[in-house]
Every structure is written in structure tokens, then in C-alpha cells.
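Q: Is it fine to ask for two folds in a single conversation?
A: Yes, each is treated on its own. Send the first.
Q: Here.
A: Result:
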Amino acid sequence: MLKKVLLAVALMLPMFGASAQTLKVGLVDTNAIIQAMPDTQEAQKKVADASKKYEEEYARLGEEMQRMYDELSKMDQNELAAIRERKTKEFQDYQVKVQNFEQSAQQDLQRMQQELLGPIFQKIKAAVESVGKEGGYGMIQDYNPQQTLYFADPVVDVTPQVKSKLGIQ
């Protein structure tokens, strides 16, 4: 019985070794692909345009806040307390309004960026999966030069194949 188990193990060992040698690993530089995609440039332009509009509005709000501050600081020391308090409250309320606008604008730009880039990431993922299946890769990992310390054969850079699938150079 022990001989049969040892014989079975001995016969299976070469198969394990062969399967380990055939594991194909690929690397893909998704950052290079993202930057090369026309969709990305279009998305970045839309975000930049929206950002510019928000910056212009923020500048207008800042000018109004500065006007209110100047008016408050130039107020005569003998001004009636109720008027001074009202102007101070208006200024403080306006500061809160400007801060809320800034936070809302940042959140909107982040949401917009996610909505525009999400489909791009999905296209890349689908292309990587296709290259992986067609090439018989066991794994394709994102290549990040800052984090990759070393790679050699049998690791293959599949970035050109993924770019080809996406129709980009």
C-alpha cells in the first residue's frame, strides 16, 4: 500500500513541476494606457472645464466676501450695536456659504471624474482580461515602476497587446 502511494506521488511530481513552469505572468502599465486613450483626454477636458467654472464662481464669492469684510472693518466704532451685529452675522454666514460651496464643488468634481473615468477603467479591464485569456496568462498584474523592484522571464509586459486591443498606440 505504501509503495502504491509513493509511486503515485512520484508520478505526480513531474506534473506539478511542469504546471509550475507553464504559469505565465504578465505586467501591464495601466497608467501609460490611460494617458494614451482619447477618452481620457476628453474626460480630463470636461473636468478641467468644470473646475474652471467653479474657480470663477469661487473668485466671485471671494470678491463679495472681501467687500463685506471691508465694509465691516471700515464701520465707525460708534455704529449702533444692532447694525454692527447684523453686518458681522452676515459676514460670518457668507463665510460659511463660501466654505460650503468649496466643499460641494470639490465633491462634484470628484464624482464627475469617477463617472467619466469609470468606463475607461472598465474598457482597460476588459482588454487585459481578453489578452490574458488569449495569451494563456495565469495572472496579469499592474506594473508600477515605483513599486516593482525586479521582474524577469517568464514575466511578460503585455501593455502593447492591451493597447492594441483598445486601438491605441
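Q: Second one now.
A: Result:
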Amino acid sequence: MALTILVVNGPNLNMLGTRETDVYGHATLDELIAGVAAHAESRGAVLRHVQSNVEGDLVAAIQTAAADGEGAADGEGAADGVVLNAGALTHYSIALRDAIAAVDVPVVETHLSNVYAREDFRHTSAIAGVCAGVVAGFGATSYLLAVDALIDLLGG
């Protein structure tokens, strides 16, 4: 059975392609996800994607990823691992941190930009301590590396 990887994107990532293109590039979120899905498929995994500007939706997606039939119809929404770009919520969302800590599903924090080369407030992650790892600064390749890390971690 193929591994299922859930990619969760937080606030403002729906604006990729038009938002701060000098930092995030010109690719849209749909283009980014299409490339990540193709990469995951080439590794024998299935990719699902959630994007929301609402913190609670991201918490629910992470909780549902851990569902093995509970909380989701026939395991719908369940995933073997999560790639999470929480956007600005990375830096202050205790709710996301608690959701990640509460589930038995590995999560890889990822960012398109090198957050450590940007504003000081971006240097602190509230979620990194409960994630399996962090990949940042490689543009769209950050997502591919995060998918590869999850698949390797899961023994796929």
C-alpha cells in the first residue's frame, strides 16, 4: 500500500506567484503542489494537500492526518506523514505545536525561504521542537526534500 503524505500550507501561501515574488518566486501554489505531487508519485507515495488561512483548519488537518478511521470516515484524511509550511503561524502558534505533539504522525516543517536569513521574528519556530525535522531555504525544492525525508523516515 502506498504511503500517503499530507502537505499542509498555512496563511498567505495561497498568494504564491503574486506575493513577494523576490522572496517566494513566481510559481503559484497549484504549480508548486503539482510538482510536489509528481515527485511523491515518483517515490511511490500519494500526496494530498490542504491550504487554509485559518489556524483551526490547520490544527484539524493535522489531527485528521492521525485518524485511522476515528474522526474521519473510513480513514478519510488519514496520512502517514505531514509536510507543514505553517507560514507566519510557525512563529507563534502553540495550538499547532500542541496538535503536532498530540499525534503519532511524523511532521516535517518546511519553508520556501531561509527564515534564518530574514527578519529576527522569523528565527524562532514554535513547532520545530515537535517536528521530525526542518527544511528551509531551497524554494520549491524544500518541499521535495521534506517529502523525501518523510518517505525515508517511514521506511518507504
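Q: Anything structural to flag on that second result?
A: Two points. The first helix runs from residue 21 to 24. DSSP finds five helices and five strands in the chain.
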